[in-house]
Amino acid sequence: MLLSLATEPFIAPTDRDMLPSERRIFVRTHRTCVFGYRRRHDGPAMSIVYYIPTDNDELLISTMAGRGKARVVERDGKVSICVLDERWPFAYLQVYADATVERDHDLVVDVMMAVAGRMSGQQLPEEARPHIEEMAAKENRVVVRCRPYSTFAQPPRHLHRNDQEEKITHWMSGIVPWDASDHA
Question: Global pTM?
Answer without folding.
Answer: 0.89
